[in-house]
């Protein structure tokens, strides 16, 4: 009996076109449409709010009203599957890519991916970033075989759009200005201590870090990065990533190699 | 089983935006309460802040996503996450709601009402037993704010709660704002509700604000919105309640349109003044 009650209740909460479930009551005996509406509203407003707090730059770009409409559509097709709302919206970027009214903003899905990465970095395990001078102590003959452990908060977002600039403009970190003519940008997102930081990666930097992230040796990562961009500069990239706190540790190849 | 035992003082629902004000000095607050689900990430600022608060204050962990009133089984993964939070912070109290929020695999993100029947009672008892066994702690169960009723209900909410206590050994969290909201919405006397409430098992009280609207017939429909100061009729009920029970840990919650710390602290001080008067009377 009550399982059915909850099934009908849940269905009518999620689909506003359904009539309110039978078996509900109010003291003044009318069909409690408006009373049921309180729950419908709580569910929608709560989830839209959860997405808005996870995607503040996205909301700023499209405006509150557009964001709420887009979020409502997303919630209908992808309701949360866990009470852990801090990871709700991991597929919001893919949804936005196919969301017709947002088509004109080609960069929007990448901004969403950047904000998702920021959210993961915020909640990632804490770890002390590797100190900058660790590499200086490595025997130069063994540098090529080094492998790196990325900081738990670190991730890379690549984009054909100037996402770092657009994000910074809509996160209050840069003046809003025209973006026409700006090249694509790749981002490194990392939280070395308590602040999540977004860095613009130099040419080849994204390929370089992604290779290290998947366990490639330094030599192999350099090869991939140089193939990606003729302008890849190893020492600038290493210094940048170390300075950002992107690495947790480095492993030397076994002696004798 | 570790009992849920908070200091019999006023507490405040912790909001991250108040953190720097809170740690700037010693606050006249007996405990802080946090929503468990906000501390289920691996690390980062939420844990850094809570770890710091925990050094100086008693802590209540309050779950909002366990869906104890659900007819389907509890989410074991979520229960495991709650255990991690409790193990990490060793709270003085753990509480959850007499409500459901998950159905099939969808999380509905609201505290939804359930009919009160023998069938739902058995289910809630089973779930409370399961939670207490998993956490090895006594939990407190909170009375809900409700907006409508179920034709199939056969048990009074107060009797339902009393029966859960008897059969599980849990304690109760009495939300006085919820009492006022639900009583108004169902055209009942909140004092009659409190007269039936098993007060001897209440280990914590919640106080918060609500907003006011009307139903189709123009009858008042109050919303448990946690976005205003505690309203006068709720303070009056609270005062009468504390006159009967003596001091009980009392939390001020303000979750939406969150004001400055000083405003929330003043609300807690108002509750604390009522608790102090009651303590003096019982000592006299």
From TrEMBL, chain A:
Single GO MF annotation: DNA binding
Gene3D superfamilies assigned: DUF2063 (1.10.150.690)
Domain Putative DNA-binding: start-end pairs: 4-95
Top-rank taxon: Bacteria
InterPro entries recorded: DUF2063, DUF2063_N_sf
The keyword DNA-binding belongs to this UniProt entry's keyword annotation: yes
A Pfam family of this chain: DUF2063
Keyword Ligase: no
Record key words, sorted: DNA-binding
Name listed for the protein in its UniProt record: DNA-binding domain-containing protein
Source lineage: Bacteria, Pseudomonadati, Pseudomonadota, Alphaproteobacteria, Hyphomicrobiales
Automatic annotation (TrEMBL), chain B:
NCBIfam families: PRK05409.1 (NF003818)
SUPFAM superfamilies from the UniProt entry: Xylose isomerase-like
One Pfam family per UniProt: MbnB_TglH_ChrH
Domain of life, per lineage: Bacteria
Lineage: Bacteria, Pseudomonadati, Pseudomonadota, Alphaproteobacteria, Hyphomicrobiales
Residue ranges that the Swiss-Prot or TrEMBL entry lists as coiled coil: none
Identification of the protein by name: UPF0276 protein MRS75_03485
Family: Belongs to the UPF0276 family.
């Amino acid at each position: 009996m009550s399982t059915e009650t909850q099934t009908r209740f849940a269905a009518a909460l999620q689909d506003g076109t359904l009539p309110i479930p039978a078996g509900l009551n109010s003291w003044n005996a009318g069909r409690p449409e408006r009373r049921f509406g309180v729950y419908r509203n709580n569910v929608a407003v709560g989830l839209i709010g959860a997405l808005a707090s996870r995607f503040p730059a996205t909301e700023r770009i499209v405006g509150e009203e557009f964001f709420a409409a887009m979020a409502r559509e997303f919630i209908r097709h992808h309701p949360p599957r866990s009470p852990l709302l801090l990871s709700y919206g991991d597929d919001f970027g893919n949804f936005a890519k196919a969301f017709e009214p947002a088509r004109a903003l080609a960069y929007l899905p990448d901004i969403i991916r950047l904000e998702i990465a920021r959210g993961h970095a915020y909640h990632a395990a804490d770890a002390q970033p590797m100190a900058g001078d660790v590499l200086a102590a490595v025997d130069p003959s063994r540098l090529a075989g080094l492998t790196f452990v990325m900081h738990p908060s670190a991730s890379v977002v690549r984009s054909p759009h100037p996402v770092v600039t657009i994000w910074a403009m809509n996160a209050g970190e840069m003046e809003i200005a025209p973006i026409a003519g700006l090249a694509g940008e790749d981002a490194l997102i990392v939280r070395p201590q308590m602040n999540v930081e977004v860095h613009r990666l130099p040419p080849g930097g994204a390929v370089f870090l992604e290779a290290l992230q998947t366990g490639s040796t330094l030599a192999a990562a350099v090869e991939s990065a140089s193939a990606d961009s003729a302008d890849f500069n190893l020492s600038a990239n290493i210094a940048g990533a170390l300075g950002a706190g992107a690495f947790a540790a480095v492993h030397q190849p076994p002696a004798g190699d | 089983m570790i009992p849920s035992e908070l200091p019999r003082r006023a507490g405040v629902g912790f909001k991250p935006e108040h953190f720097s004000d809170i740690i700037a000095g010693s606050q006249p607050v007996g405990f802080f309460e946090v929503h468990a689900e906000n501390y289920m990430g691996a690390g980062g600022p939420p844990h850094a802040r809570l770890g710091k608060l925990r050094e100086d204050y008693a802590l209540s962990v309050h779950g909002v996503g366990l869906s104890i009133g659900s007819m389907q089984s509890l989410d074991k993964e979520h229960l495991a996450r709650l255990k991690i939070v409790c193990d990490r912070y060793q709270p003085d109290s753990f509480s959850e709601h007499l409500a459901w929020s998950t159905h099939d695999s969808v999380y509905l993100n609201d505290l939804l009402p359930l009919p009160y029947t023998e069938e739902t009672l058995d289910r809630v008892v089973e779930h409370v037993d399961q939670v207490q066994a998993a956490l090895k702690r006594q939990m407190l169960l909170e009375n809900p704010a409700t907006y409508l009723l179920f034709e199939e209900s056969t048990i009074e909410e107060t009797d339902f709660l009393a029966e859960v206590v008897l059969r599980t050994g849990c304690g109760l969290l009495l939300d006085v704002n919820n009492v006022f909201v639900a009583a108004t919405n169902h055209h009942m006397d909140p004092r009659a509700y409190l007269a039936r409430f098993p007060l001897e098992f209440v280990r914590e009280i919640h106080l918060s604000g609500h907003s006011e609207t009307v139903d189709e017939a123009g009858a008042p429909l109050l919303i448990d919105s946690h976005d205003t100061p505690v309203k006068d009729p709720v303070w009056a009920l609270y005062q009468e309640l504390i006159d009967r029970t003596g001091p009980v840990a009392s939390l001020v919650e303000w979750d939406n349109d969150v004001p400055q710390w000083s405003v929330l602290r003043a609300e807690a001080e108002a509750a604390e003044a009522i608790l102090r008067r009651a303590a003096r009377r019982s000592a006299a």
